[in-house]
Amino acid sequence: MSYRPAPKISDILNKLKVNELTQLCRKFLLPQHGKKMIIVNRILDYITNVEKEKQIYDFVLHTRPSIFDEIHGMQNTRTNVVAGRNDNTNNPKNDTSPVKKNAQEGVKKKKVRIYQEDHEFASCICGGMHLTIISKACVVKCIECNKSLHVSCFTQTTCVYKDIKHYKILCVLCRLKDMDPFYPVHKALWVKNLGSNSEKISIDAHDLKIWKNQNKEVIMFCIQMDNKRLSTNIPLKQEWPKTLTLKVNGNISEKILAPSWEHKRRDNPLKITHILKAGPNEIDISITNYEQPKFFVLAFVLCNLNTEQSIIENIIFKNTLSFKEAKQRIIHLLSMKHGDDEVMCMEVNRKISLHCPFSLDRILIPCRGVNCSHLQCFDLKSFIDVTKKTKAFNNRWKCPICSLVLRPKDLVVDTFITYVLSEVPQNIKEVELNKNGEFLINNLPFQTNYVEKKNVENKPHDNTVDISHITTKLEKLDNSEELQKSNSMFPVIDEIIILDSDQEDTKPIITHKNNTQETSIHSVLQDVEDIICISDDSDNEPITSDISDKSFNGYK
What we know:
Keywords: Metal-binding, Zinc, Zinc-finger. The protein is of the alpha+beta class. The protein folds into four domains: 8-111, no CATH class; 114-306, PINIT domain (Jelly Rolls, Sandwich); 309-458, Zinc/RING finger domain, C3HC4 (zinc finger) (Herpes Virus-1, 2-Layer Sandwich); 495-555, no CATH class. Helix 5 (66-90) runs antiparallel to helix 6. The protein has 14 helices and 26 strands. It has helices at 8-15, 18-27, 36-46, 50-63, 66-90, 98-108, 151-155, 172-176, 208-213, 308-318, 323-334, 380-389, 415-423, 481-489, and strands spanning 113-114, 139-141, 148-150, 185-193, 198-205, 217-224, 243-248, 251-256, 270-271, 279-288, 296-303, 337-338, 343-344, 350-353, 366-369, 378-379, 411-413, 430-433, 439-441, 444-445, 495-499, 509-512, 530-534, 546-547, 550-551, 554-555. It is elongated. The strands form eight sheets. The protein has a five-stranded mixed β-sheet, with no helix packed on it. The chain has a four-stranded antiparallel β-sheet with strand order 4-11-6-9. The longest helix is centred in the first third of the chain and has 25 residues, at 66-90. The N and C termini lie far apart (136 Å). Helix content is 26%, strand content 20%.
């Protein structure tokens, strides 16, 4: 016995245009020539089982879902007209049939779609509003929020139940939550794909006054869906259709024109809080798609306001590497192969600028992307400031070195570079790193030229900056090569003049340092041969200065 498709599928195919029927034939590898009626009959002959009929429904649902609404409206109209005729038969005096008028108005007036946040499929592309989905068995969970999703909505093809385990999908709301870190998503007000050229929706804004007092914004996002990137490598890019007209409560609020060939259009999200009213808002959306149709999803979301300072504090608190991890990361980057000639980076020292490429000032909070393969860091605060001021939304959050998209969750604070910045003098603009991760200045290992040794207690702990394995030798100035060079240029002072403040001046008294105590006072007076004591005491006797429990021999 041959398979008989549903009677309404013939009406659905007749509603399609010739080019749409041709696409359907191309999809099912059927001949594409002939008139419209011939093509429709050819497709009807192709339907030999339930699975093929589902494929037809999925194609129409993706191409022109409004056909289902039209057919449903026509059926209601026929029912109402028949009921009106029966009323006219019973009441022949009634010249006008209000039932018939209401039926005609029902055909013209499009149904308002209402989004339900607590719906089982609220995070799906369909927003839980597609009642025509046949294959309800092919349902998966979002890999992050674990909410139910229709596989056919994302793949735009018929789902095979046997392969359902292979589908790993990230839902629409989980994609939108990282769209704009300055306005993180609080909740969704309306989410749905733009399957038709027009949509009529309703948004409830009873708490509009509270939203404004809490600095919340209602923002309209639009993203393009790619059925080949369902969970990984998803580009979070704001993109409008070719044209879009937004009407709020009957007034045209926004109009997005088609991009001109000589100018690239900036597709920024739209803030519509200021045009909403408290209570239900009727919104009409009209779009035109590109010549090669793209699959868009539109979302109206309520967003919180996130300040720059809170973003910086959150990154420092959550994404700071320990010193050990940061140094291992540096050594790993130094050992990576670089270039087409497979030259190892560890063979040559790598230079790192201590100035931010954004502000050109010295870096305060060194930051880098998790997936960045370069050593150079940039200042976190400057990066956030520049990102905030960038008008082109899709050009935000880009690394200044490698142009990778770095949202807050992709940034890390490098404590190794933080340590380098704290040790290197302010006048040094760049340092070099060798293959062991040690930093050099002017091709020489860095040594702090302080006379006093640093207190060990000032060293950071393991959870911040561990510098125990970095040997910073603090040598005495008299044993350093730099001091020997300076001694050859300048004469060594062999005398110290000690001044004693009294009213009358007397003859200066010169005292020699005891040679046996040279080592005991070496930390206080270095390279000193003679000490001259000048005093204005009344006595003219030689003055003896006692240093280290032994006196000098004073003489006139």
